[in-house]
Amino acid sequence: SSERDAADDDALDPITPEALAEHDGAESCWKAIDGRVYDITDYLPHHPTPEAVILEWCGKEASEAWHNKRPGVPHSPRAEGMLESYLIGRLVDEAGEPVEPEAAARIDESTDEAGNGEAADATARLSPAEDERLHRALLGLPLDGRYRGVFGDGGEMQVNVQFDLRDGVLSNVSYRHLAYRGVDYRALDEEDDLYPVWVQHQRLAEGLEGQPLTAIFALHEPERLAEDIDGYSGATLRGNKVHSAFRDALNRGVYSWP
Ligand code: HEM
Question: Residue 226's closest CA among 203, 244, 242?
Answer without folding.
Answer: 203
